[in-house]
Amino acid sequence: MSETFILLIGAGGHARACIDVVEQHGEFTIRGLIGTPEEVGSVVLGYEVLGTDGSIPSFRHLAANALVTVGQIKTPDPRMRLFALLEEGGWLMPPIVSPRAYVSRHAEVGAGSIVMHGAVVNAAASIGRNCILNSNSLVEHDSTVADHCHISTSAAVNSGVCIGAGAFVGSGSSIRQGLTIGERCVIGMGQRVLQDCAAGTQLPPGRVA
């Protein structure tokens, strides 16, 4: 088994975006995907959906590495469950950084996280495990993003922000410097967050002009 092979866990829209990042990254060869029963046998951008969650252990011989490629909007629970399953199975879960992203050499990106095209992670920022930093998102210097978070397309996390585990920051949102966003907060698209948010806070999408 080559340590350059990787299995993608999820076969929907986010998985298609991840495929492109993994291909551009160039270090890993995709062996296939894991999806729903209805998706098994289908082909996603040239890669076969091999099985479902329950069959993940049976594909251990195909790849040393795995990446959770299920998306996250309403809840982090599916991604957290799959990540825990992979951990228990002894899979390697390397961080994947697009060559079109920028991650400072003074920053950290945790296991199983993906930094997508155009994203920026600046100096002394810390990204936890199993996170999505989506296209053109920004995590500024000295900010912390805990495990299982999704920072959506073109969202801006300004300096010194602390984001709790399982939080979601919607597309185009902006978080003022120095704030704390609690665990499992949902920040809707286009929000301007100007004060701390307690754990579980749900802010609807910003005003539409």
Mean pLDDT across the residues is: 96
CATH class of the largest domain: Mainly Beta
CATH superfamily of the largest domain: Hexapeptide repeat proteins
**Total number of helical segments?**
2
- Sequence of strands across the biggest β-sheet: 6-9-12-15-18-21-23
Characterization of this structure:
The chain has 209 residues and is an alpha/beta fold. It has two domains: 5-88, 3-Layer(aba) Sandwich (Rossmann fold); 95-199, 3 Solenoid (UDP N-Acetylglucosamine Acyltransferase, domain 1). It is 12% helix and 28% strand. It contains two helices and 23 strands. The protein has helices spanning 13-25, 77-88; strands at 5-9, 29-34, 43-44, 47-51, 65-68, 96-97, 102-103, 108-109, 114-115, 120-121, 126-127, 132-133, 138-139, 144-145, 150-151, 156-157, 162-163, 168-169, 174-175, 180-181, 186-187, 192-193, 202-203. The strands form four sheets. Strands 6-9-12-15-18-21-23 form a seven-stranded parallel β-sheet, covered by helices on one side. Strands 7-10-13-16-19-22 form a six-stranded parallel β-sheet, with no helix packed on it. Strands 3-4-2-1-5 form a five-stranded mixed β-sheet. β1, α1 (13-25) and β2 form a beta-alpha-beta unit. The chain is globular and about 50 Å long. The N and C termini lie far apart (54 Å).
SSE blueprint and pairings:
Elements: E1 5-9, H1 13-25, E2 29-34, E3 43-44, E4 47-51, E5 65-68, H2 77-88, E6 96-97, E7 102-103, E8 108-109, E9 114-115, E10 120-121, E11 126-127, E12 132-133, E13 138-139, E14 144-145, E15 150-151, E16 156-157, E17 162-163, E18 168-169, E19 174-175, E20 180-181, E21 186-187, E22 192-193, E23 202-203
Parallel strand pairs: 1-2, 1-5, 2-4, 6-9, 7-10, 8-11, 9-12, 10-13, 11-14, 12-15, 13-16, 14-17, 15-18, 16-19, 17-20, 18-21, 19-22, 21-23
Antiparallel strand pairs: 3-4
